[in-house]
Specification:
The complex is a heterodimer of chains A (325) and B (694). Chain A is an alpha+beta fold and 325 residues long. Chain A is built from 14 helices and twelve strands. Among the domains of chain A are: 47 residues, Uridine Diphospho-n-acetylenolpyruvylglucosamine Reductase, domain 2 (2-Layer Sandwich), CATH 3.30.43.10; 105 residues, Enolase-like, domain 1 (2-Layer Sandwich), CATH 3.30.390.50. The mean pLDDT of chain A is 97. With 694 residues, chain B is an alpha+beta fold. In chain B, helix 9 packs parallel to helix 15. The interface between A and B is medium-sized, with 30 and 32 residues.
Chain lengths: 325, 694
Amino acid sequence: MQPVSYRRVRAVDEAVRAGSAPGSAFYAGGTTLVDLMKLDVMMPASLIDITHLPLAAIEETNRGLRIGALARMSDVARDARVVERFPAVAEALERSASGQLRNMATIGGNVLQRTRCAYFRDAATPCNKRRPGSGCGAREGINEDHAILGTSEACIAVHASDFAVTLAAFDAIVHTTSANGERAIPSAAFFHRPEATPDRETALEPGDLIVAIELPRSRAAARSTYVKVRDRTSYAFALASCAAGVERAPDGTLADVRVALGGVATVPWRAHAAEAVLRGARPNAETFAAAARAEFAQARPTTQNAYKIELGMRTMVRALETVTA
Amino acid sequence: MTIAIGEARERVDAIAKVTGAATYSAEHQLDDVAFAVLVLSTVARGRIARIDDADARAVPGTLAVITHRNAPVLNGEITGRPGLDKHLLLLADDRIQFDRQPVAIVVAADLETAREAAALVRVEYASEPPIASVDDPRASWFFPKQTAHMEPPEIVRGDAASARAAAAVVVSATYTTPLENHNPIEPHASIAAWDGDRLTIYDATQGVFEERRKIAGVFGLPEDDVRIISPYVGGAFGNKGSVWYHQVFAAAAARIVDRPVKLVLDRDQMFAITGHRPHTRQTITFGADGDGTVTSFEHDVLATTSMFDVFTESAGEYTAMAYAFPNVIIRHRLVRTNFGTPTFMRAPGEATGTYALETALDELAEAVGIDPIALRLRNYAESDPNKEKPFSTKYLRECYARGAERFGWGARSRAPRSMRDGRELIGYGMAGGAYPAQIFDAAASVSMETDGRVTVRSGTQEIGQGTYTAIEQIAASELAIDPARVRLELGDTRYPRAMNSGGSTTIASVGSAVALACRDLARQLGGRSRPERRLSATATFTTPDDREGYSCYSFAAQFAEVGVDPDLRTVRVRRMFGVFDVGRVINARLAHSQFVGAMTMGIGMALFERTIVDPRTARIMNANLADYLLPTNADIGQIDAEALGIRDDIVNPIGTKPVGEIGICGAAAAVANAVYHATGRRIRDLPIGPRVLG
């Protein structure tokens, strides 16, 4: 436990100024931050309460939909435009967490949620993400939920967000602001693989505030789905998940295809290898299986999570079957 | 308005509970109360090399930091009824024997200060490699002296080995169940207050009198100088049935700081220091005739216990009495591991034992090619083969028949993987179960004022199962009066003595005492509706002598339908239905709630629940309710239960048999058998899920 100061801000520039102080953290839904503060995993010196900033709107843009960072998960999941144009996004949100958490958690906070790795959450154990250089407790320990894609020697923790998987699939843009100005960060550049620095999870710099997430419209996004496999039917993290969207050419082949994976990777995982197999191909069981094999050829399981290769492939196939049915 | 036994009355305390008017342990308000927070070890085995509490003591408002260096001598051997005893590691020395072992108590004027100071207690350990698994080569098994129910650990009838050698069919398999934690929603909470040498503890407990005896023993007090108060308990399932660390620590700390002390456990602490259901590994071997008649039965139960105490999960007691197996050998063995001591958890022994046996029977039915119900009827025990006594009542045959009819068992096609709904594989599974009808000694008093108001008092507990409602119903019905005239006072050692609310005994024991006291009072009333002067009666109920010649059990027939996604391996319980022979039902609504709740717990056992332990460190890695998975509403379609409602005139004066725990008996096996029927895959290690169904 350590003392923490609290300040509610009323304007974005005020938030940015306050947030640039060392040790500060933005407080929005609080569903990750407060939880991890209780565990001594996140120990900010000051909390900047941004819940009263005017950043909750969902607006049309030239490219698509711009979702304010403070929009609640539950509000986004039932927004008619999201449901119609980005069904995978709505489904991913609806299958996340619990109803209570979805009513609290914000979209901006969602993409910053931390891994559920038990070693990350337990300050009594080693974790390179929580305490760089202390080692990885999971690699030789309990790793049945851990990643098989995008791992490094330092870290095999799974990225926990369902929503972020859909961002990876549909090339969403994370809009930030800071004392240095505004940035539009493509989701592919936003999430960092652990490599040697698993504590560096995103492209955010100290003081950066996420103000919105923009979903570019596409035919593939409008015909999309999110399949999530988990231990129980509600309130559980993905063992494997897949966001998939397709656009069919007049001849029935796949003119455009977007596939991203969750539950199996250290970051929201765009399945480029699978997409390369699928693009221009006829949608059928053989193609889907070949795409899944291509993507999971690079999988690197540890001691307890080899089941995720087969499960991940089947999840991807199910998502592709669903969107091409 | 009078009320009948069996009527589906709403809970009399429902409004009080949902509005917060019912006072739970942590909510009692005492003047000048201080707050205690525990510091628990981060290693599971070794020694405390160093404790630095200087920073903790320096926090303004800190009243005490109690460690093994300055703790008073607290008697770790709490004497009393064998099998219920606990050896507790009460800051006696520097040895660490399990993950999250208490190493310090920090007391402060407010909770925030206590938490802050607790975080500043710096402990260094000289850790040693713990034994975290029964497979550790350093772990060796031993025979306990007795099971947790004080039964012999080995049961032998006839010659199982010879009968197996001569059997036409032999089926053998090994089943495992993981560590499970009770996880009642209310955390353990104690407030201890001394008045000179008299001690009062407000506690979330399943037994105020058992706690009084043990606490008096620890502190060397006459029992009369200890008072335990527990009007409401927010769920228990067995882990509030013992005196654990927190009650002793709260009382010790209160004496040291000379103020009342409140100690509420955190969820992760509950996983380690208030018991769990131990890991079991059970091997069952049948020898049988070609028609499924079992001629030989062998059951080996290996379970975990702690390094410093013995708790024997009695998984073989059910298998000893359940079927008419002629040649039997059942043995219980234990392995010591570096976890806290296991304890009773809803249907202790029966939940694990019915899982293994009722799954093994499904395998035998498959091997000999007959219907699972037919196999059970072929081996039906008309009398208790273990105690060699008739059953007081046994309507299990009727449970099978009624369950099969209501569930639609006849629609099941025999072969595994032969039923589908669209893409989904459908499986039907069933299982039987039994739970012993014990009686714990209980007393109750009933008084009637001249205005007709009635007060019933007993030192029993409301642990969420509905004691207030059911006892009021019994009293009102015995006296043939409006239940609005009855007031109940429970959960206090100032009331007549009753034993633990455990083992599904409360209604049978306390309810019988209340009924007897009411009958006495009715005699005194002599037909008048109101007395001319205050009348009172007290009754004590113990196991009746005329029960001695009988074996008394509740029985269950459980039916489950699951849907399994053949590709994604997800399992959903589409339907579950249980039929129960529990004697006379006091309140149909409460009984249904108990059945459905326990069946849900069985679904959790089959599909979700397990305490995950790092095999290198013996550290619990999912000590929270997001990672320790319990069933959600979305996991279960329809769930329903029915009681036969046939009164048992032998078991006790009110004719009831156990309701609280019978619902989990056989539930996990019914689900596991349904998964096999759906998929053709026999998963023998619980829980079943997408990770293992692959």
